[in-house]
Amino acid sequence: MGEQIKLRAWLPGIGKMTYAHTLDEWIKMGPTPINDAREGLVWLRWTGLKDKNGTEIYEGDIAVGEHAMYSILWNDRMAQFMAKVERTKSVLIRNNSFPLWQYVEGDGECRFQVIGNIHQHPELLKEGDFWDRVKEAPNGR
Asked: FRET partner for 48 with CA separation of 20 to 30 A, picked from 57, 63, 89, 141?
């Protein structure tokens, strides 16, 4: 049996994230206020990985490691999830992206922690000292 495919959706019209994780679950929800707000929705895929606290990592998540803050994105050309450097305290070059698998430990967990996502917590990506914002960040989604 293959890997499980999970999805969540950002509904910009109402500013909410839905966690119907599979397309079947989304369809079974039927007519709801969330389904009525589907215009412009953004599908976000699960990477198949969890962070160091066991939180599932999705496309669009914001994560912090020892020396940097990353946004998680899909790269069509490389056909893989990437960690884009948003802020750094090290020699990593900002805006460079690295394959997400490079951040995976031997036990299958990523070395960083999810602190939010680009849709619900865009303030985390603003200029300034991001380490101060990390302290006040929502832990997860």
From this structure: 89
